[in-house]
Amino acid sequence: MRSVLVVVVAWAASVSLAAADELYVAPDGSDSAQGTLDAPFATLERAQEVAGPGDTVWIRGGVYRFSGTTKAVGVAFTKSGTKDQPIRYFAYRDEVPIFDLFELKPQERVTGLDVRCNAIHLRGLEVRGVRQIIVGDSWGVRVRGDDNILERLHVHDNEAPGVFITSGGSNLVLNCDSHNNYDPLEGGGNGDGFGCHSTGANNVLRGCRAWWNSDDGYDFINAPGTCVVEHSWAFRNGYVPETTMAAGNGAGFKSGGFGSPPKIPAGGVPRHVIRFNLAFRNRAQGFYANHHPGGLDFLNNTAFGNAANFDMLVEGGPSTHKLHNNLAVAPGGDVARFTGGEDTGNSWNLPVMVSAADFLSMDESEAMQPRAADGSLPAIKLLHLAESSDLVDRGMDLGLPFVGAGPDLGAFERGSETSTAPDAGVGVPAGDAGAPMAGVGGDGAGGASDAGAAGQAAQAGRASQSQPGAPSGGAWSGGSGGTAAVAGAGAAGGTGEAKGGVSAGAAAPVSDPAADGGCGCRIAPTTAATTSAGSSHIQLLLLAAAGMILRLRARRRRNRAASPQAHRSNAGRATMETKNPS
User: Fold this and answer.
1) How many distinct structural domains can be found in the chain?
2) Residue 42 within a domain
3) pTM tops 0.85, yes or no
4) Among 187, 255, 371, 452, which is disulfide-ready with 506 (CB 3.0 to 4.6 Å)?
5) Which run of H or E residues covers position 150?
C-alpha cells in the first residue's frame, strides 16, 4: 500500500508540474521544489524543463551568480515556444533579477544569456560581468533563433558586446539598455552596445539606448538579413567607458558594411533601415554607412556633436542611400562622403538655419533619465523642436505618421505621442493586483559609485538597484575636480556589488574582418584622424593601463563590499555574499 501511495503522489506531482502555466524561480529556491510562488525553483534551467508554449516563468529579484571554469554559458534557453504562444521569462512584478557572470572564467568565450531557440520572451532582466578570457567575442546576451522578444533588458559592464543577434530572424529587441561594455583583449574593438549580424531577416531594435560602449552603439556589419533600428539613442560610444580615451571605432549607428573590400553575401546586399534615432557625442560618427556596398535608408534621424554627424561612406561604386528628413546639429558637420542615391528634405539641403533656439533643450543629461513605467524611453526635451522652429513641418511625406502640415525634421515629431511601449500582454502574475513591473532597475538617483573627489558620480543603470536615476554631476567625462565612475563600479545600497570591470592587457585591434574571431566588427576606421604606428602602439599601452586600473578599482570595491551577510533585493528576497573575489 505504501508503494502505491508513493507512486500516486509522484504521479500527482508530475501532473501538477506539467499542467502549470505559471512557474517561479528565486535565488533562495530549490530545483527539487514545485516551482510555485511559495516553493520556487532555484534555476531557470529547471523552470525551462517544465515550461511549455504559453507558460510564464516569473523570476524573483536578487542576484543569480555563476562561477567556475567548466561552463561557458550562464543560462542557455533551448526550448521553443510558438509564435502565438511564446514561453515567457519575466521579472516578477517590479523586482530586478540580476545575472552576475563575473566569476565564470572558462578558457573559452563566455555568454551570459544564450537564446538558442524560437519564440521566447525575456523581460526585465539585468546581465552584468561577462568576462573576456580569450581573444574573440564573448556575449552579454546572444540570440540564435526566430521570433524572440528581448524586452527591458539591462546589460552592462561586460567585457563583451551587450546584446547581439548572431542568427535567426523576426526577433524584436525592445526598450533595452546596453552600456559600459568594453572588451580589453581587443582594445575595445568589439564592445558594441547592440549588434545585428544575422542571415535571418526582419530583426528589429526599438526603443533602446546604448552609451559608453567601447566600440559602437549599434553595429550591423556583416548582416546578410535586413535589420531595422528605430526610436533608439546612441551616445558617448567609442571610448574606454567613462573616459576620453579612444577605444574602438566609435560610431553611434554603424549601419551596415561587409568589410573592405566587401565580401558580398550569396543572397545579395541587404537594405537596412535606420529611422527616428538620436546620436550624439559619439567619438567618430553619429550615423555611419561603413563601406556598405549598396544602399541604406536613413530617415528622420537627429545627430549632434559627433565627429561626423552623417558619414555615408560606400564601397565599390556610387551608393544608393536614401536620406530624408534628417537633422544635423553642429558641431559635427552635416553629411560627408555621399556619392549617390536620394538626399532631399534634410536640414543641410533645405533653406533653414539650425541653432540651439530650435530646440526645447540642449541638456544632454536628459538622455540618462529613468525609463517610463512601461519601459519606454523617458519623455525628454533634448533636441525636441520648439514650436517656433522653422524645422517643424519641413520634411517629406514618407508614408510614416506625422502631425501637422508635414513631417518635422529629425527624430522627434512635435505633438506626437510616439511610444515604444509593448502591446498589451502578460503583465502581472495570476491573482496579483497592481501594475506590471515598472522597468528595469538601475541606479538610485545620483548614487555615488565610490568614495572620491567631487565629480565622481554613478551613471544611471551602473549598479543593481531598484530604480534607474539621473546621473549626478560629472558623470559624463569626470566633471569638475574628479573622475567619472569606472566600469564595474558599485553604487551605495545595491542588491549586490557591481561586477564586470575590465581586465588588464589589450591586444592589437583587428583590422581585417576575416581575421576577427568574432563578428568581424573591426574594420579599419576611416575617420579624419589617423595615427602613426608609433602613436597606435602608445594607445595600446594606454588601453592596457586603463584596463588594469579599472580591474583593480573593481576588485577593491568588491573586497570592500564582500561580507557574510544577507543583501536584499528591492522586493526583500535575500541573496548571500559569502566570499571575497579570487
Assistant:
1) 1
2) yes
3) no
4) 187
5) strand 149-151
